[in-house]
Design goal:
Shape: globular
Strand order of the largest sheet: 22-23-1-24
Bound molecules: shikimate-3-phosphate
Strand content: 25-35%
Number of strands: 24
Distance between the termini: 22 Å
Largest sheet: 4 strands, mixed
Oligomer: single chain
Helix content: 25-40%
Structural class: alpha/beta
């Protein structure tokens, strides 16, 4: 991606007003590219996220032999090569900043008899890949890493005869689940993933959408057992990408904390495996109304009416973490503007995101005068109903740190600065313009 550093400051703004639609869901956009490439024939995608993460995944699918074309605004067309049909790429696959694109593609490649090199930017090169490689090696893939501990760059030789498997991931991760299921497409028989804690279910839904047989059963209080019948003929089907709830989180929290705000976020996905933040904010006293709930492209969506609200501190239970794993940074901002203490429990997985987000959230808040502690894997924010601001936030190549810090500055006493906004383009192109159009003072 463009490596120009773009600092920016957010200043206390008047009320935010307006109707807007945030970009397409990242998880669904990436899955539609990868599964589209594994389907025989033409898949048309509308509402695609045209952020850097999706573009790097699209390029990887091209390098693996699929035809991937942009046919209009947010409209894409893929000619897939079928399960097991990838061609050997001539150059390393560069996933940039995208952990999801990289890890899901590893699953897809693991079931094909080809060799591919996986690489990414400096942030992605620090992230653990063993969690993906362990199950894929059990299914027959062979991998070689240049660095220790399963980091990129690494070479994968896909299995000639992939084996089906029953796998219980040691961490709650939709990426691990999805990689195993995508590899299982090429294996005969049944591949099962047993989750102790359910994670986002877009892969299961999209596999069914493309004609695969997937059975889902409950497993204990919070888990699921997902079984895929291997070697299906995936049938192309159009994909409509709903607006990303993880992106909607930023204008939503901005509207809650900027007094007098009232905004509508159109067509936001309300799949329960993604809406832990909305639930938590409502428990804190947020006014978030779902207008016109409907089903679009197989997902529940609604227009969300968000009004500025007085928030209070709450306890967020650990089992909710997978349903809001990308939202703790911006929840930290909401918690700082709330009255009282918010304790977010069980955030171990935040340490291995685009940056160590547990440490980064604490630092982002602390440099802006917020009283915050980390206790084990818990983040504790002592909200005072107001934030001093005045801090410079280091974004660590992490889009969500940049957006959270800018949201915080829209209601703080002194401006909040971020050192680099360039990475916002990985998931939310147009963020700055959209916030300005609603009345946010970003300059
Ligand atoms: C994603 C899963 C999550 C999330 C990421 C997107 C996905 O990661 O943080 O932004 O699309 O499957 P983990 O599954 O590793 O928690």
């Amino acid at each position: 991606m463009d490596q120009t550093v773009s600092p920016l400051a957010a200043r206390r703004s008047g009320p935010l007003k307006g109707r807007t639609r945030v970009p397409g869901d990242k998880s669904i956009s990436l899955r539609s590219l990868i599964l589209g490439a594994m389907t025989v024939g033409e898949t048309r995608i509308t509402g695609m996220l045209e952020g850097e993460d999706a573009l790097s995944t699209a390029n990887a699918m091209k390098a693996l032999g699929a035809t991937v074309e942009r046919t209009g605004e947010l409209a894409w067309r893929i000619m897939g090569v079928g399960v097991g049909g990838f061609a050997e790429p001539r150059a390393p696959l560069d996933f940039g900043n995208s952990g999801t694109g990289c890890r899901l593609s590893m699953g897809a490649v693991a079931g094909c008899p080809i060799t591919a090199i996986f690489d990414g930017d400096a942030s992605l090169r620090t992230r653990p890949m063993r969690r993906i490689l362990d199950p894929l090696e059990k299914m027959g893939a062979r991998t070689r890493e240049q660095a220790d501990g399963g980091r990129l760059p690494l070479t994968m030789q896909g299995a000639t005869d992939p084996l089906p498997m029953t796998y219980e991931p040691p961490v709650p991760s939709a990426q691990v689940k999805s990689a195993v299921l995508l590899a299982g497409l090429a294996a005969p028989g049944e591949t099962t993933v047993i989750e102790q804690e359910a994670t986002r279910d877009h892969t299961e839904r999209m596999l069914r959408h493309f004609g695969a047989e997937v059975a889902v059963q409950p497993n204990g209080a919070h888990g699921r057992r997902i079984t895929l019948k291997g070697q299906p003929e995936l049938v192309p089907a159009p994909v409509t990408v709903p607006a990303d709830p993880s992106s909607a989180a930023f204008p939503m929290v901005a509207a809650l904390i900027a007094p007098g705000s009232e905004i509508v976020l159109e067509g936001v996905m309300t799949n329960v495996t993604r809406t832990g933040l909305f639930k938590t904010l409502r428990e804190m006293g947020a006014s978030i109304e779902e207008l016109n709930p409907r089903v679009e492209g197989g997902e529940d969506v609604a227009d969300l009416l968000v009004r500025a609200s007085s928030l209070k501190g709450v306890e967020v239970p650990p089992e909710r973490a997978p349903f809001m794993i990308d939202e703790y940074l911006v929840l930290g901002v909401a918690a700082a503007y709330a009255e009282g203490t918010t304790r977010m429990r069980g955030l171990k997985e935040l340490r291995v995101k685009e940056s160590d987000r547990l440490a980064a959230t604490a630092t982002m808040l602390r440099v802006n005068g917020v009283d915050v502690e980390i206790e084990g894997d818990d983040l504790i924010v002592h909200g005072k109903g107001r934030v001093t601001g005045g801090g410079l936030v280091a974004t660590h190549m992490d889009h969500r740190i940049a957006m959270s810090a800018l949201v915080m500055g829209l209601a703080s006493e002194k401006p909040v600065q971020v050192d680099d906004t360039a990475f916002i383009a990985t998931s939310f192109p147009g963020f700055v313009g959209m916030m300005r159009a609603m009345g946010g003072d970003l300059s």
